[in-house]
Amino acid sequence: MAIPVIDFSTLNGDKRDETMALLHEACQKWGCFLIENHEIEGKLMEKVKKVINDYYEENLKESFYQSEIAKRLEKKQDTCDIDWESSFFIWHRPTSNIRKIPNLSEELWLVNSTSNI
């Protein structure tokens, strides 16, 4: 079983209706899909991934360290009911060097304005 793969090169042609139907079905039945031939520059894709991952990591870290699980782990209280992933995360996560959450639209605009899309 493999997730649906949708070829976006057919989106602006005679097969547009077929492509849109595949997209609709993938969203409805799978909730995810792989897009081929999307024509988005690799440099922009990498920048988008980095900005999103940085934002996610900073928010995830902040909310996790404020959670009751993290507080119990830091205080070395009883943790027998905490799964191993949570305890591994709190003890082995490297210290972040992120000082602020980036302005996503500004970051992406800067990359997009310098690319040849």
From TrEMBL:
Gene3D superfamilies tied to this protein: B-lactam Antibiotic, Isopenicillin N Synthase, Chain
PANTHER family hit by this protein: OXOGLUTARATE/IRON-DEPENDENT DIOXYGENASE
Protein name: Non-haem dioxygenase N-terminal domain-containing protein
Keywords attached to this entry: Iron, Metal-binding, Vitamin C
Transmembrane segments: none
Pfam family, any one: DIOX_N
One Gene Ontology term of the molecular function aspect: metal ion binding
Non-haem dioxygenase N-terminal domain ranges (all copies): 3-61
Highest taxon above the source species: Eukaryota
